[in-house]
Amino acid sequence: MSESNIHAKHRLRMKERYRKEGLDGFSDHEVLELLLFFALPYKNTNDIAHELINRFGSLSGVLEADYKDLIKVDGIAENAATCLTLMPDLFKRYSLDKQMNDSTFKNMDDIYEYLLNSFIGSVRERVDILLFDAAMRMISHLNICEGTFEHSSLNAERIAEMVFSNNGTNFILVHNHPSGDSTPSDTDLIITREIYKAFLPFKKYMIGHVIVAGDECRNILDTALGTVIGDQEMVFSRR
Q1: How far apart are CA 9 and CA 13, in angstroms?
Q2: Which site in 30, 206, 212, 232 is 20 to 30 Å from 135, CA atoms measured?
Q3: How does pLDDT run across 68-117, given as a tens digit for each residue?
Q4: Which DSSP letter does residue 177 get?
Q5: 149 and 127 in contact (C-beta within 8 Å)?
Q6: E strands of the chain, at which residues?
Q7: DSSP character for 184?
């Protein structure tokens, strides 16, 4: 039996196994091997999958790797690198789409879940704004800027334009700490306080400023304002 026939039968067995069992019984390198079938139809993807795990340390490390680093791996070219880098964005889009089918948020935990999905795979710092109506139905999720949360990167007029043009009543600022540490800086707290106060005369309410760090979300608004609210539900009635 030729080597190509051996690989073809192996691929058929792997696909059939997935259709019957799902991915639960697959090791990390087998998951990559299966995925790469569709980008590398004529190569032995088992060895490539092992090399990817060795190079980047884990399945998540592979899927979060930069395109330029992936194509340095022997056997990985444009199609395979694009396929791998597509996965985190696809997961994010899927999760957000499911949540947006019911976009009314009852408490901060619902928002945290949404934000953790939104920032899946984000390795660069960015600042976003979530806009809500008075009933906490999401109106829009917009990007303000890429980069650190600081005066030089934030444009107050741009934030105001987003809030007023979308008829938002409540809004939440969000920025991520790719380092995984959710501790706010002094600048984070100062700017939060300034923005909160600036919108009060217009009856537009900043109900949170959330830092996303790894698998953690931290709302720093109360810290910035020098108050402590024990019940998360109270955040939604702050006026």
Answers
A1: 6
A2: 212
A3: 999 999 999 999 999 999 998 887 777 666 655 555 678 889 899 889 98
A4: -
A5: yes
A6: 126-132, 138-146, 170-176, 205-213, 216-219
A7: P
